[in-house]
Amino acid sequence: MRYFRTLGATAFATATGLALVGTALTGSGTAEAAPTSLYPPSALVLTIGHGSHPKTATVVRAVTLTCSPAPAGSHPAAAEACDELAAANGDFGRLTVLRDGHPCTREWNPVTVTGDGVWQGRRVSWTATYGNACELRARTAESTVFAF
Length: 148
Hints:
By secondary structure, the chain is an alpha+beta fold. It has helices spanning 2-26, 78-87, 133-140, and strands at residues 43-50, 58-66, 111-119, 122-130.
């Protein structure tokens, strides 16, 4: 009798082990992997440089800006910059509209601004070149994103 009880326990343990191995190998089962993130990433590098092309411009200022999960980075006003980008749906061009009342000289001393990284899970790469620093300020005067 003892032999059959041990044999039954061994058979049960073997059957349970095989079922677990089968579930692991087939991927079926009730447990699902937890997501690694609850939010889409938003991390950017913003630069301002002297020159007419982003690849050859001399970068004079650069900051990092992370907006998810919380505003952070080396940007001096990260929270405000993240709010502005969110209102523009991550479109840098909407933040650089020429406003009236900002006269500038016609001096050609190009300044290039870039924004590269990830905004709400999608890769972004934006560049704008302005004739001089005055034109840059005229287009971005009301934007915190480029105030660094």
